[in-house]
Design goal:
Blueprint (H helix, E strand, L loop, with lengths): L1 H13 L3 H12 L8 H10 L4 H25 L1 H11 L3 H14 L1 H9 L4 H10 L4 H26 L4 H28 L1
Helix pairs in contact: 1-2, 1-3, 2-4, 3-4, 3-9, 4-5, 4-8, 4-9, 6-8, 7-8, 7-9, 9-10
């Protein structure tokens, strides 16, 4: 099933309405859809590098709007939609772990999930369930998703096709290392 969704998503990138398709995929990925927007972004930017930052902006805005839907699902529709979505992805354990640590890390959890390969929908739904304050949630989502999509766009704009394999295979690891270094830096500043 995931392979057929992936193939369908890739076919959208080649279509005349690719930007609208990217907006749709970015929106629903933040709350329920399994395929990340990067799958559409990468071929779109390689095909039209002069539109790289417009493509990143569309993905960011749509993803943040979708995060609001995920938040609402968690806040008002968890039993009906949120729990089945998390169970489908096998992320109920991630939800329980997130809930246990959310009070301690709050904004950092949203930031890290927004830039790493961790399913963002788990964070958006959990944020609603746990009634995380909406303004810090939105600010964190904007920063995280903007970083993720604009870094990908910038790399593709600058280096083109040769960077594609790196992005597809290793960008998640790079974002994880980036988050560890960022958090470590704040930790050092706070306690030294």
């Amino acid at each position: 099933m995931i392979r057929s969704l992936y193939n369908w998503t890739m076919s959208l990138a080649r279509g005349p309405h690719a930007l609208w398709a990217l907006a749709l995929v970015s929106f629903i990925e933040s709350s329920v859809f399994p395929i990340p927007p990067d799958v559409l972004m990468i071929p779109m930017i390689i095909a039209r590098p002069n539109k790289a930052f417009l493509i990143a902006a569309v993905a960011t805005v749509s993803s943040v709007l979708g995060a609001l839907l995920g938040y609402f699902i968690g806040y008002a529709l968890f039993d009906l939609i949120g729990e089945p979505v998390l169970a489908f992805y096998g992320k109920m354990h991630a939800f329980d772990d997130f809930a246990a640590r959310f009070d301690q890390y709050g904004v950092w959890a949203v930031l890290i999930a927004g830039v790493t390969p961790f399913p963002f929908k788990v964070i958006t739904i959990a944020s609603g369930v746990l009634q995380f304050q909406l303004v810090p949630f939105l600010i964190s989502a904007i920063i995280a998703r903007g970083l993720r999509f604009f870094i990908v766009a910038g790399l593709l704009w600058k280096f083109g096709t040769p960077i594609r394999d790196f992005i597809e295979k290793r960008l998640g690891l790079v974002f994880i290392v980036f988050c560890v270094v960022l958090i470590g830096g704040f930790y050092l500043v706070k306690y030294l």
